[in-house]
Every structure is written in structure tokens, then in C-alpha cells.
Specification:
About 60% of the residues lie in helices and about 5% in strands. The protein is mainly α. The protein has one domain. The strands form two sheets. The chain has a two-stranded antiparallel sheet with strand order 1-2. α2 crosses α6, α3 packs across α5 and α5 runs antiparallel to α6. The N and C termini lie far apart (about 170 Å). This is MHYT domain-containing protein, NO-binding membrane sensor. InterPro entries: MHYT_dom (IPR005330). Keywords: Membrane, Transmembrane, Transmembrane helix.
């Protein structure tokens, strides 16, 4: 049996793996929280899809290959098959998405959550061992059945816990704590599966292995991580903006932000200036005090001045 190193770069690999698992879980839980508040089915599905990419792509798949950067066999070159590596990504995102769709619609129940957790956990197992199948070594890989079963149980339990958090956890503190627990569970499943592996070198000695180098995967991992975070953030921002301008069911809100600005005219300004609120109109008409309105003030009348009289005529005698 050959020596196998899982922490070639020391503690940096498990720390980086855990941070990716935590970040993906955190973003995914935030998105599922928004999905629960959505009133329209299409909008809820959008949030659940974003959460599937965040948890499956970022929290699980990126964590796996960030941890795999620390995997090394000193007696054999290590390479990765690109097709199987990308297939493992499809397994992670697809099965997490299916689980979220199951628990994200309808009433919450223990049976539904456990069934979705079994589906998602099976996908996580498929993701892990498909990625391991993509390893190219000048050796044969063997697995311990006991540890493989243990990793499968951890994957199902972690997936069930994650889906339960997705439909029940609210608030920043609880979401952060739940993401921390999910990160531990995902990393625990990965390293349990890695512990199940043993390497038997070929007797002819190490030969050239086809595939890409582990460090060559660092650039794609960084790019995919950045694209995932930016994509999730932009998609979430777009969905939040649409929800802000609608009432949750696709109908525009009646408000300042939803109504288009109207051209200003002098007539509108003068009419709006003399409009009274109902309370002010009631005060003006005397309805609140119970006293009759004084009405318009009478205009004082002035007595007409006497018309000038002609002087009496004088006789000519």
C-alpha cells in the first residue's frame, strides 16, 4: 500500500474547504428563506434554484475539490479527469435542487423532509465518489466498506439536516449557526469518505497519468467560486428588486416607486394646493365641533346717499 497525504498544505486545505462549505450553505439558507416568503410559485422556484447552486455548487462541490487540492500520493502523479469532475458538479446541484423543490412546496412534514434528505444525500454520495473516480493514478484505489457506509450515512444525515434548516430557520443568527453546522457535516462526510480509500501501486512503477494537474484546478475553482457568488448575488438582487416593485404575486404596487412620474402643470399644482383632507374639511364645515358653519360673512350695506334736490324756483316779480 502506498502512502496517502490528505493535508499536503497543512491546515489550509481543511480551513478553505470549511469556509466554502459555510459560505455556500449560508447563501443557500438565505435564498430558501426568501423562497418561503414568495407568494408566486415561479418566484419561489427561482429562489430554490439559486439556493441549489449555492449549496450544491458552492457548499458541496467546491468544498470537495478545495479539500482535494491537499490530496497527494508521493509515489504516483495525481491527475483528474475533466469530464467526471464536471459530472460530479451536475450530481451535486441537481440532487440538492430536487430536495429543495420537494420540501419547498406544500406543507412541511417530517416524512417529506426525510425523503428529500435521502434523495439529496444519495446525490452527495454520487458527487463524492464520481469525483474520486475521476482521479487518475498509477495505482488501484480500494475502499473500506465500513467507512463508505459511514460516509453515506453522514451524507444522508447532513442533507436531511440541511433541508430541515432550509424550511424552518429564520433570522441572521440562526442562519449563521445552521450554516456552521452544515459546513461541519459536509466536511465530515468528505473526510470520512477519503479515509475509506487506500492506494495499491502498480508493480511496473508509476507511469504517465492522463488528465489535469491538481494545481491546474485551482484557477477553475477560483473562477467558478467567484462566478457562483456573483451569480447568486445578482440573481438574488434581481429577484429582490422585482419583489420590491410588486406585491408578491406579480401585480405592481400602488406606490411612489411603482407609478410613473406625471408631467407637472400649473393647474395640477394649484388644484392640489387647495385640496383638503377629510379631517380638515370636517373642521372647516363644523362637523367635529357640532356647531353650524358660520357660512359666508354678510356684506355690509351702505345707505344710498340722498339724491341732490334742485333749488326752489324764484318768481320774477
Amino acid at each position: 500500500m502506498a502512502d496517502v497525504h490528505h493535508f499536503t498544505y497543512g491546515v489550509y486545505n481543511p480551513i478553505a474547504a470549511y469556509l466554502l462549505a459555510f459560505l455556500g450553505s449560508f447563501l443557500g439558507l438565505l435564498c430558501t428563506g426568501r423562497a418561503r416568503d414568495a407568494h408566486k410559485r415561479s418566484r419561489r422556484n427561482r429562489w430554490l434554484l439559486i439556493a441549489a447552486f449555492a449549496i450544491g455548487g458552492g457548499g458541496i462541490w467546491l468544498m470537495h475539490f478545495a479539500a482535494m487540492l491537499g490530496f497527494d500520493v508521493p509515489d504516483s502523479p495525481v491527475r483528474y479527469d475533466l469530464g467526471l469532475t464536471l459530472l460530479s458538479l451536475v450530481f451535486a446541484v441537481l440532487t440538492v435542487g430536487i430536495g429543495l423543490m420537494v420540501v419547498g412546496h406544500g406543507r412541511r412534514s417530517v416524512g417529506k423532509t426525510m425523503g428529500a434528505g435521502l434523495i439529496t444525500g444519495s446525490g452527495v454520495i454520487a458527487m463524492h465518489y464520481t469525483g474520486m473516480e475521476g482521479i487518475r493514478l498509477s495505482a488501484d484505489i480500494h475502499y473500506s466498506p465500513v467507512l463508505v457506509i459511514a460516509s453515506a450515512l453522514i451524507a444522508v444525515a447532513a442533507s436531511t439536516i440541511a433541508l430541515w434548516f432550509a424550511v424552518s430557520v429564520r433570522g441572521w443568527v440562526r442562519v449563521t449557526a445552521a450554516a456552521a453546522v452544515m459546513g461541519i457535516a459536509v466536511c465530515g462526510m468528505h473526510y470520512t469518505g477519503m479515509a475509506a480509500m487506500s492506494i495499491e501501486l502498480h508493480p511496473v512503477g508509476p507511469g504517465p497519468a492522463a488528465g489535469i494537474r491538481p494545481l491546474s484546478m485551482l484557477v477553475p475553482i477560483i473562477l467558478i467560486t467567484t462566478a457562483t457568488i456573483v451569480g447568486v448575488a445578482l440573481s438574488a438582487l434581481q429577484a429582490m428588486t422585482e419583489e420590491e416593485f410588486t406585491d408578491g404575486v406579480g401585480t405592481p404596487k400602488r406606490g411612489v416607486h411603482a407609478e410613473p412620474p406625471q408631467p407637472w402643470t400649473l393647474r395640477q399644482s394649484s388644484v392640489g394646493a387647495i385640496r383638503l383632507t377629510p379631517a380638515a374639511r370636517a373642521v372647516a364645515t363644523g362637523r367635529i365641533t357640532g356647531r353650524p358653519s358660520p357660512g359666508p360673512r354678510p356684506v355690509p350695506r351702505t345707505s344710498p346717499s340722498p339724491a341732490p334736490t334742485a333749488p326752489p324756483a324764484t318768481s320774477g316779480s
